[in-house]
Amino acid sequence: MVTGSSSGIGRAVCELLLKADYKVLGIARDHSKFTPNDTNYFPFEVDLKNQNETTNVAKALLKAHPEANILISNAGEGRFNPIENFSTSQIKDFLDLNLISHILLSQIFVRHLKARSGGNIIFLGSEAGLTGKRKATLYSTAKFGLRGFSQALSDEVRASNIRVSLINPGLVRTPFFNGLGFRPGDEKTHAIEAEDVAEVIMTVLSSRSQTILDEINMSPAKNVIKFDS
Ligand SMILES: NC(=O)c1ccc[n+]([C@@H]2O[C@H](COP(=O)([O-])OP(=O)(O)OC[C@H]3O[C@@H](n4cnc5c(N)ncnc54)[C@H](OP(=O)(O)O)[C@@H]3O)[C@@H](O)[C@H]2O)c1
Q1: CATH number of 2-227
Q2: What's the rounded mean pLDDT across residues 109-137?
Q3: Which terminus of the chain is more solvent-facing, meaning fewer CB atoms within 10 Å of its CB: N or C?
Q4: What pTM did the predictor assign?
């Protein structure tokens, strides 16, 4: 199961998984952006900010696909503003997607994987989960939280053959930046490509099953941000 399968990193991961003959359950709100011509791809429309919808669909999908043994918990969005500019409901909505949905989905997956012979859970963190910067209070809150969750969960479930990994990229060239007012610079050195992150995820999945790649940090060769005029 890949969340955020319709765009950016999630889409690139789906493409590599399909190429490697995995069956992929894709989760997003708008699947019109990614329509692979592959009978192994199953798109499901879910708004991960909605907790009932998220848990009900995830449980139903695991019941229908009991062989599912990988969760790539990737979906997320950016909101970068001074903290005083956020309303209470914007704060709640943001954390519902960027932190709570990861926790709920992995809880459902852990129950499922413990009843099987184990599996993999991979979270998309961020460099913002390593260092806090201005205007990223909410984003860093979610990503620091996700990092703590990932570390503790890994310790909790590794004895059940469940491998938990966290990938922390810097700037990745994806539609994530649409509407944010800034993006990576134009040069190749200014951003990681979504495919680079997808390759790392495939490496995590294919590593020897007794080894756990706990956390991987990635950054572009040059950190250059371009502001929209
Ligand atoms: N791009 C970067 O520089 C960067 C750096 C570090 C970490 N990350 C992290 O990488 C992950 C993927 O980001 P990306 O760069 O690939 O961004 P993206 O291209 O904007 O993709 C985000 C994905 O999340 C899905 N999504 C967003 N809100 C959703 C919701 N409420 N319910 C269900 N799905 C939802 C989107 O699908 P729909 O819109 O169709 O619902 C889309 O498939 C995020 O967790 C992000 O924080 C990104």
Answers
A1: 3.40.50.720
A2: 97
A3: C
A4: 0.98
